[in-house]
Backbone:
């Protein structure tokens, strides 16, 4: 088993499974975040955030999610280093002229940029909610239940800083670009590799990447324009 995990195909499968898991997380995260723009009172988003913070199943998933990110990043670094060692520069040049997309040639850079965004993002919200606290989180009552005002924390950041809003939009666009290749590549590595599936998955990958890129961008944009 450990031999498979460290083999070339094994590493790709680990990248795929962890990537598909992260894709599921992104869908849930985006759905919840869109509550931010559907209800300006903040009640809807606060209820969603409160549910996520108190649900035992979600609490169990938190370390699994962290592990998913860590495995995905470490395996990406190992695969990239191996590829760089194994392939002379001339191969890189020949790939550029082939039919590989720009995103597929720059997955490590795109992933690295998303990681920089993620560190900033965790500090902005997760850290304040779980560790340091913030006066912006002062409790509110929604439907008779007391909960942290997560809506206030998130919306204040976007309303008060154009720089942060733009950084979030750039982060979302880089994530979308990463997914244009990552999505279908994940399926290809676990066996959907014939011509028909390749074409289908390329279309679905672009659609999904646009939903994620535009979906996450629209939130800071909404606060920038409306408030
Ligand atoms: C407009 C865009 C986004 C908003 C408003 C947003 C909001 C939030 C908030 C409020 C939290 C803290 C949740 C809590 O602990 O209760 C959080 C956590 C997190 N976000 Fe985002 N997020 C955005 C985009 C993203 C993107 C693009 C990614 C992935 C690259 C991402 C990945 C994460 C992760 C890994 C966590 C920590 C795990 C968790 O608490 O669920 N977020 N986000």
Residues:
């Amino acid at each position: 088993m450990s031999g498979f995990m460290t083999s070339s195909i094994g590493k790709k499968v680990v990248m795929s499974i962890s990537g598909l898991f992260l894709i599921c997380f992104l869908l849930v995260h985006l759905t919840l975040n869109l509550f931010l723009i559907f209800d300006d009172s903040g009640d809807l988003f606060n209820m969603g955030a409160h549910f996520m913070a108190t649900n035992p199943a979600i609490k169990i998933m938190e370390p699994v999610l962290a592990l998913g990110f860590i495995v995905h990043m470490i395996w990406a670094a190992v695969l990239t280093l191996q590829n760089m060692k194994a392939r002379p520069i001339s191969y890189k040049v020949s790939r550029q002229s082939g039919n590989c997309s720009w995103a597929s040639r720059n997955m490590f850079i795109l992933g690295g940029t998303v990681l920089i965004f993620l560190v900033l993002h965790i500090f902005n919200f997760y850290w304040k909610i779980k560790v340091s606290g913030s006066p912006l989180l002062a409790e509110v009552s929604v439907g008779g239940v007391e909960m942290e005002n997560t809506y206030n924390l998130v919306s204040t950041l976007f309303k008060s800083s154009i720089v942060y809003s733009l950084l979030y939009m750039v982060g979302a666009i880089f994530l979308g670009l990463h997914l244009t290749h990552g999505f279908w590549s994940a399926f290809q590595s676990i066996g959907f590799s014939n011509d028909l599936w390749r074409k289908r998955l390329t279309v679905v990958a672009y659609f999904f990447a646009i939903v994620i890129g535009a979906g996450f961008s629209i939130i800071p944009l909404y606060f920038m324009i409306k408030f």
